[in-house]
Each structure stands twice: as structure tokens, then as C-alpha cells.
Write a structure and sequence with these properties.
Blueprint (H helix, E strand, L loop, with lengths): L13 H14 L3 H7 L11 E8 L5 H11 L20 H6 L6 E7 L2 E7 L7 H10 L2 E7 L6 H12 L4 E6 L8 H11 L4 E3 L1 E4 L7 E4 L4 E5 L8 E4 L3 H19 L3 H9 L5 H14 L3 E5 L8 H11 L9 E4 L6 E4 L8 E10 L3 E10 L1 E3 L3 E4 L4 E4 L2 E6 L2 E5 L1 E3 L3 E5 L9 E3 L6 E2 L9 E7 L5 H14 L4 E4 L6 E5 L2 H13 L5 E3 L3 E2 L2 E4 L3 E11 L2 E13 L7 E4 L8 H17 L10 E9 L7 H18 L2 E15 L3 H10 L3 E8 L2 E9 L6 H9 L4 E11 L2 H7 L2
Parallel strand pairs: 1-3, 1-4, 4-5, 5-11, 6-11, 33-34
Antiparallel strand pairs: 2-3, 7-8, 8-9, 9-10, 12-13, 12-24, 14-15, 14-23, 15-22, 16-21, 17-18, 19-20, 19-22, 25-27, 25-28, 25-29, 26-27, 30-35, 31-32, 32-34, 35-37, 35-38, 36-37
Helix pairs in contact: 1-10, 8-9, 14-15
């Protein structure tokens, strides 16, 4: 598990960052220091802010947990339910109908005088972009685990995304009231499958139907949740005698772990003195901020149990904006690194992490402010476009509701309305102290689908609607097929494209029809080859001349493309080199086999020839395109297909049919694990064989199995199948 939290673009050692985090955790921050950083106008002091996300596998209970948090903090007057389609955070019609989260939703609430800004993220792999961009701007996270299913495939994905951004986490094992719930089993899976330093701070009080509370191992008390008040009243009592010995042993285990990390606890532990709860919480907080601990709690959100201790843990263990290292960016002109520290008197710096297009109010830009203040009516600078943008309305977000505020202060998350020319990943900053923060990287789409309007008069409206959705969703692309003239939508899966089509019809009121989803194949090469091309034409009475020689060679799978221009300046003059690169990119976008993008190759433009009078941009771009195309054709091009990581949970009685079906779909079974009276099957299956799998699996198992899948890698399509696909 990486230590600390690192958001830099390089140049700083991890030990240096860890040392700074440890120093902050050890010394804290004085009230005078905080006041020096803060504007008197800000609504909540920086040390009392928590920016957190809720991440998990689909159906682990993220949205249900969020609804209880909003209810117990007084943000909503009644709890919405996912299964009733009334959840506050699942406000989209598609979310209410399907009972899943599709788009991340932001809200704010208060607990123990702390402002908790929450982003509820989707669990379905088709919408993993929402998790990625949310984790990029959050300071901490709650990982929600199903007490029965434990660590599932998408759990691993979101957990590793949090590892990537080194986000401190706490864990909540949900559904402890369900049959087969196993708290210790889930904790063990966290340690084995996620390499998480899990430290249980509670044990369940009762199991399955008899679950009615938790045993708090830090405060050594039993917590019950009053059913009459829907769990709002927490009743603290002595630990029941049957749990007393176990609670003491488990508290001792916590102290043993913390003694290795905290000298004060080590001293008391060795001397045999009692360790106060406050000292344990301080040590746990420091360890969590460093990434050395993941405090684990438990409960049953649907039955309103365990949420208030979870909120206490958010306040006690997750970081404020002051507890994470300063964000690092680069100056636009010199590319020199520069840190931006949280504080209202620092130069304004914010990251655009999401864009939503509202048919009524236009573009809503979600931002995280890292330093300074962004005020309504002020101007911000976008280093990517090199333009000043005027800030119109500023809003605080509560799902699909918006509350106007005069400003956003450092450490806050909010939305901007009326700002133009920005896209996801842009930095908005002070013009006199510009900086570019590291942008957000998104996966490539793996499924495509033709989509057409019901009437030709709606074509322009359809294209505008799709472009608006593409602007807010970086994993969705739309383009016109040059051969057929059709609009081709590309996304992360069948559900993703289905939701896009529904949004077009419901939000933008454009009726459309779509074709069958298709696999977004890729191309690569098997060997090295050289291509040469001389472009010599007379266009409009003027000569155009260029000659280019290029070499292509394979790279390891997943390594990406590498384009180099090693030809000398005499062979390809400086003024034409950008066009040569553009010509190479043209070919890599369309390939030579079936108009698919080319991946995992190296292109070296090693020679060329220019004419003193007749060479032009057009000539060099075309010559580069044709030279690389010839080289690709000679390098034994291969067709690649996406392979999916498939996880199926099925009853024992149907496991034979499920395994046979996987083999019939060209799949490879990786593992089969037993869980209660079910089996968990992990397999790798080509995406081309998985369309309509939900219906097939329901038929095989009489509707009693479930599955999830996510992109794993690209592999070469078998020869006979490739020939059939390419005609």
C-alpha cells in the first residue's frame, strides 16, 4: 500500500511528501495559522472541511449509505430508497428505473460542525469515468463492501483507482443483516485481494436477522440504533457479557498494530497502562493519512444501523484540505513546477473535473478549488485555451439541485454556470500566476453503435445532442463514418450506449434509432517494415512536392504508440515537421485493415526530401500518411479485440451450465471460488461474444445469477475469425 498522498507531476521524492504529511499529523495546525490562510468571509474553516467520495462495486449499497448520511445530518427530511426510485442522489430517470447510479452526484452536509462534501459514484464498470474523475479531486473516500459478497471485481477496480491517486480511505462493511454476512471474511479479503492494511474498529452485535448494532472497540461500548426514530437515536450501553472477551482481544490487536506506528501508544502498551480512546483516534488518523491504515466499520444501511459511527470516522480519520500535500502544477511557458497550497490568500487554482449539460441552464462546470477564491463576476484564466473566462453564477450542489453562493473558497467543491470554452481536465487559475495541473486520463471506448434520427430533419439536432453528451462524458465519442455517412457512437459498454440513446430522446427530445452494438477493434503489427512515398502533384497551377520514409515496429501490448521524427532538418525542414506528425496520426486513427485505430507500435520517420520551391504542408502530410500506410501494410497487420474480465455469482446447481457457456463463448475460466451456497467464477471472455449475455445468463440460471465485467486487455483475433470480420 503506498504511503501518503501524492498528487504531483514529478520531481519530488515520495519520502519528502510522506515526511510532510507525518509532520502535519504530528504537530497539527494552530488556530492562528489557519486564520492566516482563511478569508473572514468563508463559511467553514479549512480544518473542518472533508471532501470525500463513496466508492464500491455495483449493488454494495453506496447510494443507500449516502441517503442515510443526508438524513442523519439533517440535509434531507426523509430517506429515499434506491429500490423505490426515490433516492436523492439517483436523480436521473434512467437511474431511478434501473436502480443503479449512472452519474456521480455531489452534495454537502454538516456533522459535528464539519462540512462534509460528498460525491456518490457509480459502481457499474460502464461508468468508471465518474469514479476516476471524482477520485482525482477528493481528499478521502469511504469504500463500501457487501457483507455477503465481500471484495468483488469492480471493488478491486475502484480500490486501485484510489491507490493511483493515493486517497486515504475508511471501509464500511454493509448488509450485515443479510444471510451469509461475514465481517471477518470481508476484512480478510481486503487484506488479501486489495493489499489493504485493514484495522477493524468494530465488530457486529448479532449476525444476519439478529444484527441490531455494533461493538465499538475504541470506546469499548455497544451501540444500538432505535428503530422508532429510524435509527436517528443511538443508544450507547455496556458491552454484552458474551462479547466482552472478544472485544478486549480485538482492542488489544488494534493497540499492537498502532504501537508500531505511534510512540505514545507504544509506551503505554509496553508499560501495561490503559490507552485512552482519544489517543487511539489520533494515532489512527495519522496512520490513515499516511496510507498505513484503513479503519473498518460495519452496519446495515437499509435497516438504518451503523451510519452515525461512520460519520464520526469521516471526521476523525479522513483528511481536511490542510492534511494532504500541496497540489503541484507547471507554469505554462517554462514548464517549471510550482506548488499551490490550500489557503484563501493564495493565487486562485481550480480543476474542472466534470461537465454536465443542462437543456435549461446550459453548461454546468464542476470544479475543485485548491487555492485562492473564485468569486461570481470575477475572471479566471484557462492556460489550455490561453483565454480569460468570466465567472457567472456559482452554485453549491445537492444532486440535481443548486444553491447560489457568492464565491467558492479553497478546499471547496462547487459548480460554475455561464462559463464557456472549458473541458474536463482544464485548469482555471489566476492570470498573473498561471499554472497547469495534471489533467485526468480516461480509458478508450470499446463498443460502438450506429445511431440515426427518425427523420432526416432531426439529423443536426441529433448530432448536437450527441456532441453535448460527449462534452460531459470523456469516455463517449461520436464521429461520422466516412464511408457510410452514419453517426457512430462509441462508449464503454452496451449499458453506456443504451443510456446515451435514452438521454438523447428524453433530455434533448430527439427521436433516434440505433443499430446493434459492435466491438471497437484495434489494429497492430507483427513485425518491422519500411514504407516510402513521394508526393508530387500540381494543384491549382502550383507544384507540391515531398518525400517521406517511415519505419514501423511492434511494441509490447498495452505500451501505446510512439512517434519519432529522426530525419534531419535538411531532409524534413522544421516548418513541415508538425504536418508530418499530423499525417502519421491520421493513419494511426484509421489503420489499414478495417478502419480501426492502430495501437502499440513505434513509428520512426527517418528520412525525407524537400524541394526549395514546391514543398508544402499538404505535400508532407500526404507523403507521411502514405509512407506509414505502406509500412503498416508490409508489417503483417493484426486485428485486436478487447478481452473482458468477467465475474459471475451463480448458485451451485447451475455452475456446470455456466462454465460450459463460457467455453462456448471462446472464454477462459480463471478461477472458481465457493461462497456459501454459490460459486464465484472469474473468466476472461472476448467482448464480441458477450452481447446479450444478461439474457443468456438469466435463461441458464432461471434468473438467479448475476455478473459484472470490465475491459482487461486487447488480444489478437484468431485468424479465421479475423478473415470473416474483414470480409
Amino acid at each position: 500500500m503506498p504511503t501518503g498522498r501524492l498528487r504531483t507531476t514529478g520531481g519530488r521524492t515520495r519520502d519528502h511528501i510522506v515526511a510532510r504529511v507525518e509532520e502535519r499529523a504530528r504537530k497539527g495546525r494552530s488556530a492562528d495559522s489557519a486564520r492566516q490562510r482563511e478569508s473572514p468571509e468563508r463559511p467553514c474553516p479549512l480544518p473542518l472541511i472533508r471532501n470525500i467520495g463513496i466508492i464500491a462495486h455495483i449493488d454494495a449499497g453506496k447510494t443507500t449509505v449516502t441517503e442515510r448520511i443526508l438524513f442523519y445530518t439533517g440535509r434531507v427530511w426523509r430517506m429515499g430508497e434506491v429500490h423505490e426510485g426515490s433516492a436523492t442522489m439517483d436523480w436521473m430517470q434512467q437511474e431511478q428505473e434501473r436502480g443503479i447510479t449512472i452519474t456521480s452526484a455531489a452534495t454537502s452536509c454538516f456533522w459535528r460542525d464539519h462540512q462534509v462534501n460528498i460525491i456518490d459514484t457509480p459502481g457499474h464498470v460502464d461508468f468508471t469515468v465518474e469514479v476516476e474523475r471524482s477520485l482525482r479531486v477528493l481528499d478521502g473516500a469511504i469504500g463500501v463492501f457487501c457483507g455477503v459478497a465481500g471484495v468483488q471485481s469492480q471493488t478491486e477496480t475502484v480500490w486501485h483507482q484510489a491507490d493511483k491517486y493515493q486517497v486515504p480511505r475508511i471501509a464500511f462493511v454493509n448488509k450485515m443483516d443479510r444471510k451469509g454476512a461475514d465481517f471477518d471474511g470481508v476484512v480478510q479479503q481486503m487484506r488479501e485481494k486489495l493489499a489493504a492494511p485493514a484495522i477493524p474498529l468494530q465488530i457486529p452485535w448479532g449476525l444476519e436477522d439478529s444484527f441490531h448494532g455494533v461493538i465499538d472497540l475504541v470506546g469499548m461500548r455497544a451501540l444500538d440504533f432505535d428503530a422508532q426514530s429510524l435509527g436517528a437515536r443511538v443508544i450507547a450501553a455496556d458491552i454484552p457479557p458474551e462479547y466482552d472477551d472478544e472485544a478486549k482481544q480485538r482492542r488489544q490487536a488494534i493497540l499492537e498494530v498502532l504501537a508500531e506506528k505511534d510512540e505514545g501508544i507504544l509506551e503505554r502498551y509496553v508499560s501495561g497502562a490503559d490507552v485512552p480512546a482519544g489517543m487511539i483516534r489520533r494515532a489512527l488518523r495519522a496512520a490513515t493519512l499516511r496510507g498505513d491504515a484503513v479503519p473498518v466499520l460495519c452496519g446495515a444501511a437499509l435497516r438504518n444501523r451503523g451510519i452515525q459511527p461512520l460519520l464520526d470516522a469521516v471526521v476523525d480519520f479522513l483528511p481536511s484540505p490542510l492534511d494532504v500535500p500541496a497540489i503541484t502544477g507547471r507554469r505554462p511557458k517554462t514548464l517549471q513546477e510550482e506548488e499551490r497550497h490550500p489557503g484563501d490568500h493564495e493565487p486562485a487554482t481550480a480543476l474542472v473535473f466534470k461537465i454536465a449539460v443542462d437543456p435549461y441552464v446550459g453548461k454546468l462546470v464542476y470544479i475543485r478549488v485548491y487555492s485562492g477564491i473564485i468569486k461570481s463576476g470575477s475572471h479566471v484564466y484557462n492556460p489550455r485555451t490561453r483565454k480569460r473566462e468570466r465567472v457567472g453564477r456559482i452554485v453549491r450542489l445537492h444532486a440535481n439541485q443548486r444553491e447560489d453562493v457568492p464565491a467558492l473558497f479553497s478546499g471547496e467543491i462547487g459548480g460554475l454556470l455561464g462559463i464557456k470554452g472549458v473541458t474536463t481536465g482544464d485548469t482555471l487559475c489566476s492570470e498573473h500566476r498561471p499554472v497547469i495541473l495534471e489533467t485526468i486520463h480516461f480509458p478508450e471506448p470499446v463498443v460502438s453503435m450506429a445511431i440515426e434520427p427518425m427523420s432526416s430533419s432531426d439529423r443536426e439536432s441529433l448530432q448536437k445532442a450527441l456532441e453535448a453528451i460527449a462534452e460531459e462524458d470523456p469516455t463517449f465519442r461520436v464521429a461520422v463514418d466516412p464511408e457510410t455517412g452514419q453517426l457512430i457512437a462509441r462508449g464503454m459498454g452496451e449499458l453506456h450506449l443504451e443510456v446515451v440513446k435514452e438521454r438523447v430522446e428524453r433530455e434533448f427530445r430527439v427521436r433516434a434509432r440505433s443499430g446493434r452494438p459492435m466491438v471497437a477493434y484495434r489494429e497492430t503489427v507483427e513485425k518491422e517494415a519500411v514504407g516510402e512515398y513521394t508526393f508530387e502533384r500540381v494543384i491549382g497551377g502550383k507544384g507540391h512536392f515531398a518525400a517521406v520514409s517511415a519505419r514501423v515496429s511492434p511494441r509490447p501490448r498495452g505500451a501505446g504508440n510512439q512517434v519519432e521524427l529522426t530525419a534531419s532538418a535538411e531532409e524534413i525542414p522544421a516548418e513541415f515537421r508538425a504536418e508530418v506528425r499530423a499525417g502519421v496520426e491520421d493513419v494511426l486513427t484509421t489503420g489499414v485493415l478495417g478502419n480501426y485505430p492502430v495501437v502499440d507500435i513505434r513509428v520512426d520517420v527517418f528520412a525525407g526530401k524537400a524541394h526549395p520551391a514546391d514543398s508544402s504542408d499538404t505535400a508532407f502530410r500526404n507523403a507521411a500518411t502514405m509512407a506509414v500506410r505502406d509500412a503498416l501494410a508490409a508489417a503483417d497487420p493484426l486485428l485486436l479485440e478487447p478481452i473482458m474480465d468477467l465475474e459471475i455469482i451463480a448458485p451451485d446447481e447451475f455452475i456446470g451450465e455456466v462454465l460450459s457457456d463460457i467455453v462456448g463463448r471462446r472464454g477462459k475460466v480463471v478461477s472458481v471460488e465457493s461462497k456459501a451456497d454459490s460459486k464465484i467464477v472469474r473468466a476472461e471472455v472476448p467482448l464480441a461474444e458477450m452481447f446479450g449475455y444478461a439474457t443468456g445468463l438469466r435463461s441458464l440460471t432461471r434468473g438467479r445469477a448475476s455478473y459484472t465485467m470490465e475491459p482487461l486487455r486487447f488480444e489478437v483475433v484468431p485468424g479465421s475469425l479475423a478473415q470473416r470480420l474483414l470480409g
